[in-house]
Design brief:
Multidrug-efflux Transporter Regulator, Chain: A, Domain 2; 2 domains; three-stranded antiparallel β-sheet; alpha+beta; 5 strands; two-stranded antiparallel sheet
């Protein structure tokens, strides 16, 4: 199996065979923006494993009566969800790294310079800073 599902490796004839479609159907889907393959420097279409999965899904949904514009919207939403999941994973990793690098900092305040960490036991001057968040719901008085 291919390591990268997004690597454009299949020529149109192979992709059509893998998706059980006619090559002209793949050309039409590319023209309308439904499943867009990569291109070689010479302009030839190259389909990825993900493109093949999308083509099979298009065929299934179309056979169930879904319109091509509805299928296009569904595929766009699936791409968006995939991108958002990647971003969430990146942010969770960054948060874990930040927590490991700063284990003692658990209180934050907003000051003239922006959001700043407040070490445990430090009193925040209320006239210039406001406590934004503190674990456990307790606030300093």
């Amino acid at each position: 199996m291919i390591e990268d599902d997004d690597a454009p490796v299949f020529a149109i004839a192979v992709a059509a065979d893998l998706a059980s479609m006619h090559p002209q159907t793949l050309r039409q889907y590319d023209r309308i923006g439904l499943v867009i393959p990569g291109r070689t420097r010479g302009g030839s279409r190259r389909y990825s494993a993900r493109n093949i999965q999308q083509l099979r899904e298009v065929a299934r949904l179309s056979a169930e009566g879904m319109s091509l514009p509805a299928i296009a919207r569904l595929l766009d939403l699936e791409d968006e969800v995939r991108a958002l999941r990647r971003r969430v994973n990146e942010l969770e990793g960054a948060l874990r790294a930040e927590r490991q690098n700063r284990p003692g900092v658990r209180v934050f305040a907003a000051g003239a310079g922006g959001v700043i960490p407040v070490s445990n036991g430090r009193r925040v001057r209320r006239s210039t800073e406001v406590v934004l968040w503190r674990p456990g719901g307790r606030s300093e008085d």
